UniProtKB/TrEMBL annotation:
One of its GO terms (molecular function) is protein transmembrane transporter activity. The keyword Nucleus does not apply. NCBIfam families: tatB. This is Sec-independent protein translocase protein TatB. HAMAP family: TatB (MF_00237). The keyword Transport applies. GO terms for biological process: protein transport by the Tat complex. The Tat system comprises two distinct complexes: a TatABC complex, containing multiple copies of TatA, TatB and TatC subunits, and a separate TatA complex, containing only TatA subunits. Substrates initially bind to the TatABC complex, which probably triggers association of the separate TatA complex to form the active translocon. It comes from the Bacteria. Part of the twin-arginine translocation (Tat) system that transports large folded proteins containing a characteristic twin-arginine motif in their signal peptide across membranes. Together with TatC, TatB is part of a receptor directly interacting with Tat signal peptides. TatB may form an oligomeric binding site that transiently accommodates folded Tat precursor proteins before their translocation. PANTHER family: SEC-INDEPENDENT PROTEIN TRANSLOCASE PROTEIN TATA, CHLOROPLASTIC (PTHR33162:SF1). It comes from Hydrogenophaga taeniospiralis CCUG 15921. Residues 65-84, 141-166 are annotated as: Disordered.
Length: 166
C-alpha cells in the first residue's frame, strides 16, 4: 500500500490548493471523495463475490459427501433389512405350523389374535355413568347441561349498558 504520512498529505493539499485554487478546491475534494467511496464499494463487492463463490464450492463438496454417505447408509440398511427378513422368517416358521411372509396379513392376523388378548377400554359405559348423575347435583356443581355458542356466551356475560341520559 502507499505510505501516506501527515507530511505527505500536507504537501499534496498545498499543491492542490495552488494548482486548483481556493474556489474550486471544495468541489474537487467532494468529487474525489465520492469517487474513492465508489471504488471502495466496488472492491468490497468483488471480495464478497469471490468469497461467495468459494463458499459455494465448499457447499457443493459437502453436498457430495453427504449424498455419498446417505447412499452408503441406504445400502447398509437394505442389506440389513434383507438379513432381518430372513432371520424373522426362520424364527416364525415354527409358530402354529404356519409359514408366512411379510405380505401375508391373514396368517399374521390369525396368529396375532390367538397369541394376544383383545384390548378392552376400561371405561366402556362412560355415557351411562354420566347420565346417572342427578340434575340437581349438576346444577349445584356447575356442570353445563346445554351447549351454547360463543356469541351467545359473550352476549350473556356482557355487562348491560345503563340507560341513564347524560
Amino acid at each position: 500500500m502507499i505510505d501516506l504520512g501527515i507530511s505527505k498529505l500536507a504537501l499534496i493539499g498545498a499543491v492542490a490548493l495552488i494548482v486548483i485554487g481556493p474556489e474550486k478546491l471544495p468541489r474537487v475534494a467532494r468529487t474525489v471523495g465520492a469517487l474513492l467511496g465508489k471504488a471502495q464499494r466496488y472492491v468490497s463487492d468483488v471480495k464478497a463475490e469471490v468469497s461467495r463463490s468459494m463458499e459455494l464450492e465448499e457447499l457443493k463438496k459437502m453436498k457430495d459427501s453427504v449424498e455419498s454417505a446417505a447412499r452408503d447408509v441406504e445400502t447398509s440398511v437394505q442389506s440389513g433389512a434383507s438379513d432381518f427378513e430372513k432371520s424373522w422368517s426362520e424364527a416364525t416358521a415354527g409358530l402354529d405350523g404356519a409359514t408366512y411372509g411379510s405380505d401375508s396379513s391373514e396368517a399374521m392376523g390369525s396368529i396375532g389374535s390367538s397369541l394376544y388378548p383383545v384390548y378392552k377400554h376400561p371405561k366402556k359405559n362412560w355415557r351411562i355413568k354420566q347420565n346417572a348423575t342427578p340434575q340437581w347435583f349438576k346444577a349445584r356443581t356447575g356442570v353445563r347441561t346445554r351447549t351454547q355458542s360463543g356469541a351467545a356466551r359473550v352476549a350473556r356475560f356482557r355487562p348491560r349498558s345503563s340507560s341513564v341520559p347524560r
